[in-house]
Amino acid sequence: MPTKKPVKRSLKEEVQAVLSSLDRMGTRRDRENLARFGITASKAFGVSMAKVRVLAKRLGQNHELAAALWETGWYEARILTSFVDEPARVTPAQMDRWCRDFDNWGICDSLCFHLFDKTPHAWTKVAKWSDSRHEFVKRAAFALLASLALHDKRAADEPFARCLPLIESAATDGRNFVKKGVSWALRGIGRRNLVLNTAALEVANRLSTSSEAAARWVGKDALKELTSPGVMRRLAARRST
Are residues 76 and 171 in the same domain? Predict the structure, then answer.
């Protein structure tokens, strides 16, 4: 007897199946953890990142599914898109549209760290978003820059050096999630190699003596890490190899 072929679900059915899976995986503890970590989300199941990753691996990459999941507005569904979407099919317009929807650092950082930095539009968006009035769009610029500093092993020093003035300019923004993103980007650049470490330290030293409280915080935060013995040992080891 011939085996029956599995019935292919519609996109709407696929989305509903994903939401049902997230609902089953959600826990009260993980919902409470969102607030504990400063993540505000009006629609959240309470699913840990570890469980989201397991579900993402099962789903595989699917650009259409990612777009539909984003439209649901559910926190975990939007986190899923950072693993499910196909970087090569992500458009600049999509990045702008989704970025305008960012309303917490969890969504912002996940998209930048797992998806946006893999697209061919990443560097352009760093520059475009860096002077946004929207707190999480501006944070996205520097979360994306930090992600590129960590993940783009082939990039030359010049694109990162070119972004240092953007960091210095944004460092005066006192909004909590912006200044932390700016510091993250500066520290990420300074950890790439000794040349960029020197350039980043010049910026950090200037910021540490600024008359602006936010800039001083960014400068001192970066100095503490970029001059630490552990970072200096790793950079020296990279130079020797």
Answer: no
10-residue block means of pLDDT along the chain (241 residues)? 68 97 97 94 96 97 98 98 98 98 97 98 98 97 98 96 98 97 98 97 98 98 97 89 67
Which pLDDT belongs to residue 238?
A: 83
* CATH number of the domain where residue 165 is located: 1.25.40
Task: Report if residue 203 sits inside a domain.
Answer: yes
Domain residue limits at 57: 11-85
Whether residue 22 is contained in a domain is answered as yes
The end-to-end CA distance of the chain, in Å, is 62
> Given this model, what pLDDT does residue 182 score?
98
- Examine residue 4 and state whether it is found in any structural domain, yes or no: no
Q: For residue 84, what are the contacts with CB-CB under 8 A and spacing of at least 6?
A: 56, 59, 60, 61, 62, 65, 66, 69
Q: Are 220 and 206 in contact (CB under 8 A)?
A: no
Task: Taking the CA atoms of 60, 64, 70 and 71 in sequence, report the sign of the dihedral they define.
Answer: negative
Structure tokens at 111: 């998209």
Please give the structure tokens belonging to residue 56: 């993402």
Give the total number of structural domains in the chain.
Answer: 2
* Interatomic CA distance for residues 79 and 17, integer angstroms: 16
pTM of the model: 0.94
Q: What is the pLDDT of residue 239?
A: 80
Residue 174 DSSP one-character state? -
